Amino acid sequence: MSKFNIVAATGCPTGIAHTYMAQEALEQAANEAGVQIKVETHGQIGVENALTAEEIKNADAVIIAADKDVHAERFEGKKIIDVSVSRGIKDADALIQQAIDGKGRLMVSTNRNKNSGTQEFNSEESEKTNIGRLIYKHLMNGVSHMLPFVVSGGVLVAVSFLWGIYSADPTNAQYNEFAATLNEVGGLAMGLMVPILSAYIAQSIAQRPGLVVGFVGGLVASNGGTGFLGGIISGFIAGYVIVLLSKMLKGLPIALDGLKAIFLYPVLGVFITGLLMVGLSQPMETINIAMMDFLASFQDSNPVILGLIVGSMSAFDMGGPINKAAYVTGTALLAQGNSYFMAGVSAACIAPPLITGFSVLFFGKYYGKEERNSGFVNFILGSTHITEGAIPFAAKDPLRVIPTLMMGSSIAAILTYLFKVQVPAPHGGFLVLPVVTNGLLWVIAILTGSIIGGFALGMIRKHSAGVLEK
Amino acid sequence: MGIDIRKSIIIDVSALTQQEVFDLISKEAVSNGYADNTALLLKALNEREAEGTTGMMDGFAIPHAKSKTIKEPAMVIFKLTDGVEWNSMDGKKIDFVISLMIPEKEKGTTHLQLLSKVARLLMKNDVKQLLKNANSASEIDSIFTRYITK
């Protein structure tokens, strides 16, 4: 037989230097070890020295040294050593040796063990950070695909309000056909937000089979009123259902592979995930009603307590059952002539996007370009009461971001109640200012909460950026 | 002609910190017309650095920047009098800095390939040794020309 044969792929975000240095290092190391290697590079120029299907098929081992996606799914059924590009540069000799020794994780139908290669000889470096990073990667994939839906939908809806906040309602005097169309199209785009989030979380975990299942699961979550938190859950469930299925179906003969991809994964995956999500969505209505009862019992309590509750509820799930409970209670009380309560709810719904906006304004350098831009768009979305703008930020790091948003929203709501602001409209954000009593104070209340929240969010971001760099 | 790319090589540069090196690189690049704006270039260098260290092994670093302020692909090469801390891969201080300037919209691939080739060179022990021993700008220039055209 010929020499031991390795194929490798290298890549880094800039694609100018590290990608090629890793290539060089691996080639040198292979040369010294007397084995054959072909290294594909994913650089700025594009993919060079591309591996053919034939070469992959004939390879005895695969090394991936990349900080970007190099299409690892091609290597299904191969032993893979998967490390960062810098390890490819630094430890090329060791990686080649590990490949020869047959180390590396066997790749089965999904790349869920993206970092498993690293884990094997790096296990001391705490598996925890790897799992954390993995979860983050899946979340990020969902969020980055969701973002344009939020922005496009949110901005169109916001623009439709320029004709008046009731412009989409045919029975209202403000009705305008074009505005109504904008509102509808924007609403549809925003409605896809949760399914897309779920779909691409699942896709990150389990590639294409995950996408399908995650999409459907997300739609179930969305229709079930679970909000974006439900979408995150359904994305992870969908992804791991496929991973589990691929394990269970491993015994099937290879001849049935086609059947798996086109039939078994989608059908079984959608069935299982769909049922789970329907089950999870069931209690949502109950939660929603219970929260409304709870809230109604506080409507006359002191402004600080009421503001704290309303603020926390509104910012907690931004469109989920808890937020809806606050909002619906607000509109119900509005119908009864209480326009104080709604003022706090609106303030708390306007604050979260503004918080993210101020955060990127103050702490821009800790955010990526995409995030900075969407943060600035959030000034528009926040000003028009489109709370969803904050979701992409919250979804990336819910455990830290959501409490911060809750705090900022609470401050905004508490001040609103203290200032005795009255807002007689259920929506529209700052566009309804002309009809707001104590409008200036209301704006001050909201900005105060948003700026404090934005500052806190930025500090958290700064801190976690410091940790990541390590 | 050897490397069809503009470059500025300076030896015996003294700097105490990585930031100071970046600062010098930016000024050098602007004064040679590779870039328009030192502040933007500095920012691009720092942004790249934040994604992961460019400090490699054996004292070599390859900071690079891609920015719209950069007018043409170019290299700024410094040999430092003393090593500076760079959070490098092997933990050693950096005393040889090869910075690559990449325009935001580089049309041709030729220059990008050249820059990548430079990066590859830094993995070769013989080249590294030659560069370390070189003590004039023209010597360094000829090493690059020799190996890259090869």
From TrEMBL, chain A:
PROSITE patterns linked: PTS_EIIB_TYPE_2, PTS_EIIC_TYPE_2
Gene3D superfamilies registered for this protein in UniProt: 3.40.50.2300
Domain of life: Bacteria
A Gene Ontology cellular-component term: plasma membrane
Main location: membrane
Residue ranges constituting the PTS EIIC type-2 domain according to the UniProt record: 135-470
Protein name: PTS system, fructose-specific IIC component
Organism the protein comes from: Marinilactibacillus piezotolerans
Lineage: Bacteria, Bacillati, Bacillota, Bacilli, Lactobacillales
From TrEMBL, chain B:
SUPFAM superfamilies: Phoshotransferase/anion transport protein (SSF55804)
Name of the featured protein: PTS system D-fructose-specific IIA component (F1P-forming), Frc family
Gene Ontology CC entries for this record: membrane
Domain of life: Bacteria
Domain PTS EIIA type-2: 2-147
Keyword Nucleotide-binding recorded: no
Record keywords, A-Z: Phosphoprotein, Phosphotransferase system, Sugar transport, Transferase, Transport
Record's keyword annotation contains Transport: yes
InterPro entries: PTrfase/Anion_transptr, PTS_EIIA_type-2_dom, PTS_IIA_fruc, PTS_SugarTrans_NitroReg
Annotated Gene3D superfamilies: Mannitol-specific EII, Chain A
Gene Ontology molecular function terms on file: protein-N(PI)-phosphohistidine-sugar phosphotransferase activity
Biological process according to GO: phosphoenolpyruvate-dependent sugar phosphotransferase system
